[in-house]
Amino acid sequence: MEQHPLRNVQIKREESTPPRTLEEYIAIVKRDVPEFAQIWNEVWDEELSHGVMVNEEGIFIDRMPASVEKMMVENLINGYAPKKVKAKIPILSFYGKRKRKMTDDYTDEQKAAYEKFHHDVIEPFFRHMVAEFQSRFPHAKIVVIPNGHHYCFIAQEELVYDEMRKFLLE
User: Fold this and answer.
1) In angstroms, what CA-CA distances link 67 with 4, 15, 73?
2) Cα dihedral across residues 21, 23, 107, 127: positive or negative
3) Which among 25, 32, 113, 148 could disulfide-bond with 60, CB atoms 3.0 to 4.6 Å apart, if both were Cys?
4) Cα gap 143→12, rounded to integer Å
5) What is the 8-class DSSP label of residue 58?
6) How far apart (Å, rounded) are the C-alpha atoms in residues 27 and 32?
7) What SS3 class is residue 97?
């Protein structure tokens, strides 16, 4: 992620008032993360309501500090390796293979840098993660969902249900 060309890019937005309602906060999330907006539903409203808080100025903010989120991601990606197990248990694993949607808030140069990063870094890393999991658990069934998202695969729920049904019937 240190190589990610957009990790320090701050999108210039028109001056807007900070979110003072949950609805305003949700609108900002949907604007800033179009792939969330595509799969948004009432469950997300409820989920997000537990992930925010109101600060002393009456503004809705993330409940989890960015520093904690950063540590979690770093430890999940860099520091976590499941221990080898000798038991052979049925395993069905879904991988959401998605690509960030680049809005017109980004310049053509930023979009091109992201495309290159996605092709040269994210795609090989994704293939490595799937191969690593398969090597640890050769009997596992792995389903890669193109344009999938790890948030419950809401946009591809029928595919997920079908794969789960097949797996459970085997």
Assistant:
1) 18, 26, 10
2) positive
3) 25
4) 38
5) S
6) 9
7) strand
Tell me the per-residue pLDDT of 20-51, one tens digit each, with 9 for 90 and over: 999 999 998 888 888 888 888 888 888 889 99
Domain residue extents for the chain: 22-169
Would you tell me how many other CB atoms lie within 10 Å of the CB of residue 114? 19
Q: In the structure encoding, which two tokens stand for residue 58, read together?
A: 């009456």
Q: Is the pTM of this model over 0.70?
A: no
Rounded Cα distance, 71 and 78, in Å = 10
**Sign, Cα dihedral of 65, 67, 69, 72:** negative
Q: How wide is the angle at C-alpha 130 spanned by C-alphas 127 and 136, nearest 5°? A: 135
pLDDT beyond 90 at 13: no
Using DSSP's 3-state secondary structure scheme, residue 86 falls into: coil
Q: Give the E-state strand segments of the chain in sequence order.
A: 52-54, 60-62, 92-97, 141-146
Q: What letter would DSSP give residue 118?
A: I
The amino acid at 92:
L
Angle between helices 42-51 and 22-32 (to 10 degrees): 110
Mean pLDDT of 70-93: 76
- Determine the Cα–Cα distance for residues 95 and 163; give it in Å rounded to an integer: 12
Whole-angstrom distance, CA of residue 98 vs CA of residue 164 = 20
Q: Let me know: does 154 contact 148? Beta carbons within 8 Å.
A: no
